[in-house]
Amino acid sequence: MERFANWSELPAKKQEVLERKLFYGKEMMMVRNEVKPHGVLALHSHPHAQMTMVLAGACDVTMKGETFHLTTDGVVYFPPDVPEYKRKRQNTVHRSIPGSSAQSHKQ
Q1: CA dihedral 3, 30, 48, 76 (to 10 degrees)
Q2: Which strands sit side by side in the sheet containing 18-24, from one edge to the other?
Q3: Is it the case that residue 4 has pLDDT exceeding 50?
Q4: Burial, 54: exposed, middle or buried (Cβ in 10 Å; 0-12, 13-18, 19+)?
Q5: 26: helix, strand or coil
Q6: Chain segment 25-67, per-residue pLDDT in tens
Q7: Measured between alpha carbons, how far is 52 from 55 in angstroms, rounded to an integer?
Q8: Which of 15, 50, 58, 86 is paired with 36 by a 20 to 30 Å CA distance?
């Protein structure tokens, strides 16, 4: 586990609709996702609370039957175990910080 890093030097993992960078320790992690335009992150939930901030772009977040439109600097709190999904309206960059162990999120 690294304690210090330069974000620009962290390896990126390319997935179908996004490119992801992770920095994590035993009890917390930070993730940056660059999502392709109109990309949809499938319905999912987390065993821990999570905060997400849109760094650039825009997206719709649906949780508990409500849809919220977020733009640059928009933030959202996800309670644990609540299904949610995100739909990107344009090329979107967001950073998420979960509130507990990162070990279950290494992907």
Answers
A1: 150
A2: 13-14, 18-24, 29-35, 92-98, 50-56, 75-78
A3: yes
A4: buried
A5: coil
A6: 877 888 888 888 888 888 888 888 888 899 988 888 999 889 9
A7: 9
A8: 50
d(CA 54, CA 75): 6
Place of tokens 């409500």: 66
pLDDT in tens, 6-20: 999 999 999 998 899
CB 47, CB 81: distance < 8 Å: yes
Q: What is the pLDDT of residues 84-101, one digit of tens each?
A: 877 766 667 777 766 654
Round to whole Å and give the CA distance between 96 and 41: 14
Give the CA diameter of the chain.
39
H/E segment holding residue 87: strand 84-88
Helix (H) or strand (E) holding 18: strand 18-24
Name residue, tokens 């279950």.
104
Distance between CA atoms of residues 98 and 26, nearest Å: 12
